[in-house]
């Protein structure tokens, strides 16, 4: 159902998505054969070098990971699709700004003061823990122990066995019902607590370091930015950016000019950011260095309508709004974007438009829409710059994880940088109907003023020019009588006459409107999306739990087609070359595997790498110019002439043909069993 | 001629390059109309936001630049072409490793001790200058002053007026002939000098800070890595990587396994690196943060042949070898790669192969081959890890600039990391013919040894097992007589008997060869390539020096086709949408410009942005479904049906058709003058 709603995507993408969703559905049948098995997925990802701890031979560093060949290519494909879906589709202005940032920028933006997490220290070992994670781990462990003591099953869909090991140790201790309720409320509101609140919680509920069972100290703020110093003198402190956003804001005037002075427009940037996390332990879900993709959409604060809103109005979303959470619950609502904006749940059309486009992007690359929700930030939880924020959260073995944030930063950033630097970061818009105002305006005879009042002239001018309309009218009346008296802030009086000052009634026409645009910011954590996508894509063959498969959609699969000659013998070489060249010419990335092992093993290896299609070249290929085509998820094999199979596989990869349609074009290959076992 | 040699590129690319070179030649005629004008290019790049100083509204930071929309897209296109030319063409293994690196890695690699430049301090102001740049600036200024005094012209092809302003002030002072010769020798060998040498030079030749005319102090080493600290405790120092290479080396074992244990193979990575330059002043040519593309090709040290060498054997290169430079000269040689390797000028086939492939890549994206040379590093100049190195240097307004390095790092990196961590970073290769060796081997009765010698047993074993064959034979003889005496390093003697130790003659068959592969490293500085490409592409129209053009090849041009409706009126909207959608479907990136200005002005703006083709939609398009096609360099306009023009422009952009061929397909448009002025 939610999948169907993605059909309301813009006309250009509609057919493609429809066809792709059919393909996926056709093969979904056998993917649930075995429950999700996290250790097996992790072993696969490690064995196939999707990613690995960085500096592994040096013992590794928490929160730093390297992507190997399949992981890098998967990431590059996600980025490429992101570029098409957002930058090209919406004609955004791409940027590439620096990571190293002088300190004054983040002092102005508020990051130096506020981009921080609460940490607590183990009072005996000095180990440092993130305060909110400590609360979460300990309370969840106690709740799990309570369930165990009550003989209840663990929460489904989450790999609890694994989780318990990582978090605090569970002891089967029954809790009073009101304690269970209290813990659940604390957990639902956790993101809303201040450091002092958490300190209080630790004392009240005796929360200790789960690793040592020692008490922890009072929560302290730890700034998450990596610090460095620019230049040889050591006098210019700098930080590694924790987000790419400031690079957009500082270039606002140039971007606006590039867009011929008009809003709305959006800038976009894909790049590395850094956060010195306190104690990252969650694999790719919490890292110290990561690739982001960020959009800053600059919009008139008085008009947050979006001209393409109708295209996504009917996209149905799962929402978890602020009020529900503040009531200590987590009940979600299914609702269309149109309804959510109409009802004021989502603040405006532009924010709603991006929430829907984020949804479409995630589903397109293979995220399961049933495990995707949008959660609104609670008041205290929001970043210091945001006025409203919705996170795309994706469910995975650790729970619901924020993978995309979509915030309305209002005019915060442009205003603070403008105030700090004196550079006007504003839009100047010609008014169609000029604004006419009538008012009293002081007119000076500067020469006479200077001559009469010498060094006091400036003060006098300032006093008169800061008068309100009523005072000016009053002064005008006095002057009409020959003289007017004003007083400086210090109480010194001055007598003015009509030779020096007259007050005139004027009609003023304002034909330019000047305003600071608001910013809607969709911000994507690509590593988190990549990891949850891998979880959603992973399953094992029914007949054999050891045979893992990653059902990545062709659009993001690292390799689209595997070319498998029966052996590395020379007679196959010309055909391998021909097929490889034809695919490359069509822009389809393939790999040849002529390694010295059975065809079945080579296919099994590529199922683990997520390669959707395989082509076998054997003696029949040499004699009759035929080849077989294998589909990863069903393991079905079809046969046809080399040219026909090439035509079909290119359409399959481009999403213009479904596997069912391919099966109509190509007859079944009767050697399936022999090849795939 | 050099251009023609690029035809020896692999079969798949041959036609494309040939056709492209024809296109370029056809339009090269009018590009030399005006001499290169650097301030005008810089104004254009700034106005069109190719790039700009980062944090400009905060006053900027030397050596940090942001890329705006055209610059980002140009960079993305260069990267995309690099990925095709290297990663896909050669089936390299892509990596994406972290920038933040714990200190021990760079301690092992030698960067903490040696990745540094010599700096000098102004003795009065404390300003910091890079020592070799100081020498270069002052000596070049004196040589220029000498030329002026002799009434000679400045060196051609270099924008000297500009250069003088930036470097030391020139005074017209004639120098003695032998002083001129000495200065020229110093400049040719400058990269070869140590810090002490430069200090000596400053004293001998009275070299002072050109900004203040003050003396400078003794050269001191300044490490170029940005330092930071990982985690909340401050106990884990880290550096931002100054190159991506270490990320490849540390993952060597995983990469080797991914490649089924075989060498040669190459890994490749595109990513950000950082160097805390002492006083960067040369725009994009010397920056503190930059995007690199690096390849590490792992190869058998005993076999550096390359299987595709024949494909590039005839590529002709301009070389400047080590011996010429060490003789204080800079005379280049034109030679094919094949000859250079045969004559031992380039050390081996693999190094030669990559030098040629680098050449082909640079020419393909638009670097002028006449302004491209390969310079070999001199002995003292080489990085601490390299055994041979050739830089691709591209000539530009500042002289010859290193844009790609191609080094043979030998086994340096893998060896040091292996020694430090104890992880074997080696290849194990089954030997086709096992190596048979015969030798004396000690055989212990461990029980008897332990019982007799207790805590000395280990020392005894160690002593015997480190004996050479001769000593073992000697001991064997003693034992044959009933007892053998050995001594520990401290001189303590032990008496052994045949019950404890026998020495046996054995035949040992070694069927596995274990070796540390060597590394050939092509390393690209993308910002330098991008900037020199912009210089090589820039020219002004003959009729009007104000009308700048960037003749970027379609393959890298930020926008391929500009769609220009006569006006923003609604009647053109359906056609604009149709043409835009058709181009996007064909993978051709176009932009619509319906801004409220003349068609001529819109084309002029896009000439500055390097957009190679333009399509005009007017009333005739609405009535007859025709449209015109404009070529950027010649400003020629042709006309045809919408479908035909679309077919032609797609072929032009893909490089499968030349503009001459297009002119045969489409008749001339007779409204050229009206539209383009």
Automatic annotation (TrEMBL), chains A, B:
UniProt similarity note: Belongs to the class-II aminoacyl-tRNA synthetase family.
Cited SUPFAM superfamilies: Class II aaRS ABD-related (SSF52954), Class II aaRS and biotin synthetases (SSF55681)
Assembly behavior: Homodimer.
Keyword Ligase among UniProt keywords: yes
Domain of life where this protein originates: Eukaryota
Name the UniProt record assigns to this protein: glycine--tRNA ligase
Domain Aminoacyl-transfer RNA synthetases class-II family profile: residue ranges: 199-558
PROSITE patterns (UniProt xref): AA_TRNA_LIGASE_II
EC number per UniProt: 6.1.1.14
Subcellular location: Cytoplasm
InterPro entries named in the record: aa-tRNA-synt_IIb, aa-tRNA-synth_II, aa-tRNA-synth_II/BPL/LPL, Anticodon-bd, Anticodon-bd_dom_sf, Gly-tRNA_synthase/POLG2, GlyRS-like_core, tRNA-synt_gly
Record has Disulfide bond as a keyword: no
Principal subcellular localization: cytoplasm
UniProt source species: Psilocybe cf. subviscida
GO CC terms of this entry: mitochondrion
GO biological processes: mitochondrial glycyl-tRNA aminoacylation
Keywords: Aminoacyl-tRNA synthetase, ATP-binding, Cytoplasm, Ligase, Nucleotide-binding, Protein biosynthesis, Transferase
Catalytic reaction annotation: 2 ATP + H(+) = P(1),P(4)-bis(5'-adenosyl) tetraphosphate + diphosphate
Molecular function via GO: ATP binding; glycine-tRNA ligase activity; transferase activity
Enzyme class: ligase
